[in-house]
Amino acid sequence: MNLHLKEFNIPQEVLKWGDSQPAHQRQHIGTHIDCYNLSRIEFPSEIDVTVVDVRNLDIIDINILDNISIKEDSFVIFRTGYLENYGYGSEEYFNSKSSPYLTNKLVDKLLDFNVKLIGIDLSGIQHGKDHVAIDKYVENRGAYVIENICNLNKVGSKFKANLKWLQLEGATAIKVEIETL
């Protein structure tokens, strides 16, 4: 099962906007890894994944990890239901005023567990002025944020995934493909 948006899942108006942007900016369309500090990404292509169901929560806080086992060097994805309910590119999907977000305490706890990737089925784990700041913070701690993950309603809560990515010089985002194994 693929967990990344494919070209046909992306509305034409979003693709059109991307075509008018520099190549590095266009990488922010679809499923991607944010790397605002331009770090060279190095992690294994195969990774353990935990999906945490946070549908119907506005604020995703540290208590969501109660009774959830997180492996070191793993990938934790938060399923808010936004992508599956509203569709990528919709006004509701990109409305950061109503979108759920991860608290700083939760992000710190994940980084203390030494996770390598924090994923979400939204356009960011935090929004507005906090979006880029939290992505840089995560990157400075040796991990990365992956945004716009799809098909979370078709997978279990624990599995292995294969990752493929191509890092363009100077890009602040890297398109990524995520396939379950």
TrEMBL record:
Q: Which residues form a coiled coil?
A: none
Q: Which InterPro entries match?
A: KFase/CYL, KFase_sf
Q: Which GO terms describe its molecular function?
A: arylformamidase activity
Query: What is the name listed in the Swiss-Prot or TrEMBL entry for this protein?
Result: Cyclase family protein
Signal peptide residue numbers: none
What GO terms describe the biological role, i.e. biological process, of this protein? L-tryptophan catabolic process to kynurenine
